[in-house]
């Protein structure tokens, strides 16, 4: 691992110069060790859902990863867990609840899968204080409009808990990825608070459309705009004006620790975009997330 990537000063300089208290990162991963080891092994193999060499920059013990985020000045982060098969989500929720209890700066995270009983464990997660859900349409290989999920979405919509959802067709398309199924989901549950991961990469324009159309649809910046992502899925230049205009609905995400570059690059990539000013950066790095998750700065 490149030791320079763990240097906190380049990251801290950015948010200190902006005059904000730190960073709210809505897209970070903490998982049971057995699961994280399998995720890293999949990235190492450049499996079909990855499709290219993908070195893990922050491959370290869990305690070091938490300490690294804190040294960067990340005030709140998530433990985005996600199942790839039945009978896994409830166990992940139990682990994530314990992790959040032991890690006060981690937003209590939960997940679900289309299976009998999903509504029960989702209700239990909400009742226990889950502040965000994670859904990975690509890895889970299920439709967000699966009938088994209808009561789940209803509970989440009623509770107004945000959902970070990987539904774009990057880095490789899945059987159920893309904007059409999310559009169908929102017709059923128009008040769902969805945070579209990776800006909807590579269907950026279509997910920007949904963000404009639905009050509670948002986007996270995870991996978008970086040199790594621009090689395969560059953001369309024609949409930069909309990106600027929607700054109040965009949230910073890093994908830490599973990124093939340093954390600072994810932020500097944003600073260099056309039309982006300090107010936009303040909102995206801190203000929007602080408001959504009730963080007192």
Automatic annotation (TrEMBL):
- The keyword Zinc-finger is annotated on this UniProt entry: no
GO:BP terms for this protein?
A: secondary metabolic process
Q: Which residues form a coiled coil?
A: none
Gene Ontology MF annotations = carboxy-lyase activity; hydrolase activity
Which UniProt keywords are present, listed alphabetically? Hydrolase, Lyase
Domain Amidohydrolase-related: start-end pairs: 24-295
| Highest taxon of the lineage | Bacteria
Which PANTHER family would you find in this protein's record? 2-AMINO-3-CARBOXYLMUCONATE-6-SEMIALDEHYDE DECARBOXYLASE (PTHR21240), ISO-OROTATE DECARBOXYLASE (EUROFUNG) (PTHR21240:SF28)
Q: What is this protein called?
A: Amidohydrolase
């Amino acid at each position: 691992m490149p030791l320079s990537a763990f240097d906190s000063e380049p990251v801290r300089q950015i948010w200190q110069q902006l005059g904000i208290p730190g960073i709210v990162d809505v897209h970070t991963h903490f998982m049971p060790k057995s699961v994280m080891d399998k995720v890293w092994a999949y990235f190492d193999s450049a499996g079909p859902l990855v499709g290219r060499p993908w070195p893990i920059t922050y491959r370290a013990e869990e305690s070091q990863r938490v300490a690294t985020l804190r040294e960067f000045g990340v005030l709140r982060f998530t433990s985005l867990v996600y199942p790839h098969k039945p009978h896994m989500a409830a166990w992940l929720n139990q682990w994530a609840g314990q992790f959040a209890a032991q890690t006060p700066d981690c937003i209590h995270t939960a997940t679900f899968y289309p299976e009998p009983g999903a509504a029960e464990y989702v209700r239990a997660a909400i009742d226990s204080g889950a502040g965000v859900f994670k859904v990975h349409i690509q890895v889970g290989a299920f439709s967000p409009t699966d009938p088994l999920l209808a009561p789940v979405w209803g509970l989440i919509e009623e509770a107004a808990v945000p959902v970070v959802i990987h539904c774009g067709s990057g880095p490789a398309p899945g059987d159920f990825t893309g904007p059409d199924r999310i559009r169908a989901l929102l017709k059923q549950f128009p008040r769902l608070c969805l945070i579209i991961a990776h800006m909807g990469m590579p269907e950026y324009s279509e997910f920007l459309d949904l963000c404009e159309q639905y009050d509670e649809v948002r986007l996270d910046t995870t991996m978008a705009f970086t040199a790594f992502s621009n090689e395969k899925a560059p953001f369309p230049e024609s949409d930069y004006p909309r990106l600027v205009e929607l700054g109040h609905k965009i949230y910073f995400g890093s994908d830490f620790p599973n990124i093939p570059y340093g954390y600072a690059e994810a932020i500097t990539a944003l600073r260099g975009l056309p039309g982006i000013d300090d107010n936009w950066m303040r909102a995206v790095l801190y203000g929007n997330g602080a408001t959504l998750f009730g963080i007192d700065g």
